[in-house]
Amino acid sequence: MQFWMNLVLVLQLLSALVMIGLVLVQHGKGADMGASFGSGASGSLFGATGSSNFLSRSTAVCATVFFVSTLAMAYLANHRSGAGSKDTILDKATPVAIAASGAAAIPGAPVAPVAGAASEVAPK
After folding, report:
1. 20 close to 58: Cβ distance less than 8 angstroms
2. Which terminus of the chain is less hemmed in, N or C, by CB atoms within 10 Å?
3. What single-letter DSSP state applies at residue 103?
4. What gap in Å lies between CA 97 and CA 37, rounded to an integer?
5. Which Pfam families does the UniProt entry name for this protein (predicted)?
6. For residue 98, which of 82, 117, 81 has the smallest C-alpha distance?
7. What whole-number distance in Å separates Cα of residue 82 and Cα of residue 47?
């Protein structure tokens, strides 16, 4: 189970880093305005139209892989195999005896003996 969790975590990290890189490489819709004044900022590696299609599709694929790996990690974290996998935290909790007087809630207050508890008997 731990192997699958690590594998999905690595897949998620790689897809996140690739998606960040693809988003940073893409140019916005307003980048063509700079080209009209002679700066030449609209030129790209894959051509004017090919880059937006290729980069946007690659970003969509990376986003899909990222979300699927996130769902897989959530599923693996909640459905661990083992002997006590059906127990919840509430089932494992042990009950705590509470003093009847409520003095235990006051810091520094003397603790009153609880009814039914063994107490010291003074010799007569």
Report:
1. no
2. C
3. G
4. 79
5. SecG
6. 117
7. 54
Contacts of 4 (CB under 8 A, 6+ apart): 76
One-letter amino acid of 31: A
Which pLDDT value is given to residue 115? 61
pLDDT in tens, 17-71: 999 999 999 877 766 665 556 555 455 555 555 556 888 899 999 999 999 999 9
Query: Which pair of tokens denotes residue 88?
Result: 């919840």
Amino acid at position 60, single letter: A
For the chain, the residue count is 124
Question: Does residue 19 contact residue 61 with C-beta atoms inside 8 Å?
Answer: no
């809630």: which residue's tokens? Answer: 105
Nearest to 6 by CA among 55, 69, 50: 69
